[in-house]
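Input:
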Amino acid sequence: KQEVTQIPAALSVPEGENLVLNCSFTDSAIYNLQWFRQDPGKGLTSLLLIQSSQREQTSGRLNASLDKSSGRSTLYIAASQPGDSATYLCAVWVDYKLSFGAGTTVTVRA
Amino acid sequence: DAGVIQSPRHEVTEMGQEVTLRCKPISGHNSLFWYRQTMMRGLELLIYFNNNVPIDDSGMPEDRFSAKMPNASFSTLKIQPSEPRDSAVYFCADSYGTGRDYTGELFFGEGSRLTVL
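Output:
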């Protein structure tokens, strides 16, 4: 069974600092890896999707890397802003099933 | 497109009552998923449909839960009878493609928050 772990569970940083969020998974036979953002009381918003053949994806201030052999992905958020405060979840696809980590809750202090 | 649409957004009911949650997926997306989110267990996949056919319902907790997808634009998740431990946020999500061509990008609705008293 695929296990997805996100460390740390919570993170608080001052505005402007770069954020580094970690995700690890136990089974490297994944199709894709997806990073989501969830605001309180809301659904999940897709941030980045990394295909299994890719090493990274970028969108604006966000960059996600994928190392299948070591079972790791990292989400970088440059120059954090208070609006980046949310819970970030990573999820890995194996066949049609998406296994989620528990998330990292980020607080960016103004 | 308006995205994945779920209703109701909030439901409060009493134990033993029937609950029906509804989902309208994005047009053209042929895979639909129902998830449940709780603080204790995180996000759990309940059931997966592809082209309106249930493919995997192994995550459905027990016979009190049932899901249908009568057509490509509508799905329901029903709990009968409901119990307090069913209290959670239920998400509908969709995607497109199947098998090795699966793009894998999942789109979530806003969720239905269920409270069973």
